[in-house]
Design a protein that fits this description.
With 534 residues, this protein is an all-alpha fold. It contains 24 helices and no strands. The model is unreliable at 231-286 (pLDDT under 50).
Length: 534
Amino acid sequence: MDVQLTAAHWVYLAGILVILATMALRKNIVVPAVVATFLTALTFSGSIVTGLSAIFDASLVAAKELFNIFLIIAMVTAMLGALRQLGADRMMVAPFRRVMRAGTSSFLVLAAVTYVISLFFWPTPAVPLVGAVLIPVAIRAGMSPLSVGMVIAICGQGMALSSDYIIKVAPGISASAAGVEADAVADKAMVLSLIVGGTALLITYLVQKRHWRTPSPDLLVEWEAAADRGIGDTADRGIGDTRGDDSSGGGGGSRPPRRPEPAGGPTGGGGEQAATATAVLVAPSDPITDPDAEAEKERRGTAKAFAMLVPLAYLAFIVYLMLGKFTEVVPPLQGGDAAAIVGGIAALILFAAAASTDRGGFLETTSDHLVDGLVFAFKAMGCVLPIAGFFFIGNPEFAGPILGISADAAGPAILFDLVTTVQSHLPQNAFITSFGILLIGLVAGLDGSGFSGLPLTGALSGALGPAVDVDPSTLAAIGQMGNIWAGGGVIIAWSSLVAVAGFARVPVLDLARKCFLPVMAGLILSTVFAVLVF
């Protein structure tokens, strides 16, 4: 079927090319997306009023479609804030230190813990948590700092975030733009992420193992001394410098936790002796109780309880999720039900943790954590709205409200028209199309966010899939892999990989270079698998 292209089609295409070029230059693409939205709407309608309105309406439509994603991020972040205030976040991972005795065991534990925490809570809180508690133990067990950083980046920013199977932010964005079910994208993205991550981890293990050393406490001292001398990316040390940490073995690792100073005791080294001398003057029948020590003991007991409660709650959710998916014991979760349950669990844990920390003012504390969560959600995802709004113009399902077309009339299929025109001149080959989507995803990820290119790869997947007889959800999952493995913080240095390098205390450029070949090998293998199997 011949499609008649109009000036609006060409303006929209020019907008896509400008956005891709801006991404390649590692610049923010919000302004080009907004300008392209205005020009496309102006050209289509011939009205400057419609063009100006489209700038707002495009972001509004995107916000309506994606606000559930913002809300789940906010709730999970708020819950983690309450757990962090209580000290339960570190206790959740502390038991794993006991089995990290050598390089291989540390490699496996570090990978598993980073993946699980990042899958449920995103890498943003996982990296500081693992960095403060487990990295010093892994260094002491013989792993090299560079291999530690590679494992955390591959399992957190890569494998967990690229599937985003629990919170389903990434599959939700990809599916919305592709016009398919989020669960279909999520299921395929999970399989592909495991292939990419497994391949990258295997290559990392084989290449880096020869750099590991015999376990020794001296390795930790050497690692910290190297950081003190400025070896590594000194600009990043402030992000990951945890040497002042006094709980759960963070930072210095071998330092014991500081004891709270007795009430009334003098500052400095004589505090404990003074407390002992005071105790001698009191009769045995009148034992002294330290209110601060009792309060600390109660706080640690509460923190331990939450450190067990949170994993058990989400483990029960995983069991329910699997029972609904593979059996008929419970009804399967549909659409965004899984994300909603994650948010509901997070909210209840938030309330309980806040009440345990501040019984008198927990209402205000809870509100503060929620506000912090919302602020983080919009900082992390806010720039996606105008970008998604531009690509939604190309989708007839969303174009109508953006361009001011009445609900009864169908919106223009601008992107689909462009693809239909071009596809007759391209080889109708599933492999070429799939690797093309992967390449676009990698280029889109160059801006360092990992999510801003998902509307583009999702929209292209919805348009190209039927033409090459490939399920659009498969192409969307492939594009999602390219977007997040590049921009999520694994193979480019100007992303959240900076935080990983800071905690591992290695140069971020070296870390990005070392991750590149293992990840690219995994992406190529996963794309071939997707075309042949899905």
